[in-house]
Amino acid sequence: MNYLNNTIKAAVAALALAMAAPTMADATELRNASYLPPSHFGTKLMLEPFFERIAKYTDGAVTVQNFPGGQLASAQGTLDAITSGIANMGMVGIGYVGDTLPMSTIIEIPGAFTDLRAGYNAYWRLIQDHLLESEFLPRGVRPIMLSLLSQTQILLAGSPQINSLSDLAGLKIRVPHAAAAEAIAALGMVPVELPTSDLYLALERGTVDGAVMLTASVPSYKLQEVAHSITTNLAMGSVGFVEAISEKDWQKLSAAEQQEITRAGTETGQASVDAMLSVNARAESTLAESGMKMITLNDSVLAEIAKALSTVEAKWVERVSARNPKAAEIAAAYRANLAAQ
């Protein structure tokens, strides 16, 4: 009888343990679409730490399999891949989906902030309080992690002395998006649209005189071979990358799993600020060592630039309002968030 009782007790204990702990059968593996290559700093410093935290905090109940290098979707197609079910989640570059998420492109407005952490906090709050309901959820996705790039600078083929805006007048500058084009035009230069992949040759041939560029990206494209200077203290607009999950897949997770993934996203996003600042600082050092002139603009030039850029937000509101009447409300909320930092 004791043997039978002990056997029953052991069976009950094993059943309870099996029900309490995740197994291979009930664990959730999410497919992540990323256009970043495996070696990219975004993969190493942002995505991989995020996925590791998810597995750790959920005790293996939720894991993520990353498909880098555009295996599941291109940069432009990542959002569609999530909504169609090709991927459960993915890294969405806001600049690539501006037509779909127009109000989210407010992060690209030049001059909004110079402190990256302040910009991160203000924009993440904007996403949680406003953009989640107005833009992301209506498209079936939920942001769970944010990464912002440092403010872009102006890369120049030449090495001009910049004592006033007039020293830049008429230069042809490659721009990555509409807000940058409006900013460059406001500064008296000529915006030129062309793919980043064509920029090296365009600088070499003189098709353009420079580009609005993230400093950390210059060595990646070897642009220091055809450009000779870059600014260090401009704020020509940031770039936002949102790790988003399908809302359908999100709702399949338990409340506890959602809480831990949110925790992992918050920690990774905050850590990405320091990582980005470090990456950008190393790039500046590398470029300076290669002989590139690092241009730190004086206060009088910065004041000229700030005055010229003061019209860019209004143009953004006008342009985006044609697609969503809440654009002015979003711009005001973003300003308020920045002021609170």
What does this protein structure show overall?
Strand 1, helix 2 (41-57) and strand 2 form a beta-alpha-beta unit. The protein is α/β, with parallel strands linked by helices and 341 residues long. The chain has helices spanning 2-20, 41-57, 78-84, 116-136, 178-186, 199-205, 247-252, 255-289, 299-309, 312-321, 327-339; strands at 28-33, 62-67, 89-93, 141-148, 153-156, 172-174, 190-192, 210-213, 229-231, 240-246, 293-295. Helix 4 (116-136) runs antiparallel to helix 11 (327-339). The protein folds into two domains: 29-101 and 117-148 and 240-278, 3-Layer(aba) Sandwich (D-Maltodextrin-Binding Protein, domain 2); 153-237 and 281-339, Bacterial extracellular solute-binding protein, family 7 (D-Maltodextrin-Binding Protein, domain 2). The N and C termini lie far apart (70 Å). Strands 7-6-8-5-9-11 form a six-stranded mixed β-sheet, sandwiched between helices. It has a five-stranded mixed β-sheet with strand order 2-1-3-10-4, sandwiched between helices. Mean pLDDT is 92; it is low at 1-25. It has eleven helices and eleven strands. It is globular, with a radius of gyration of 23 Å.
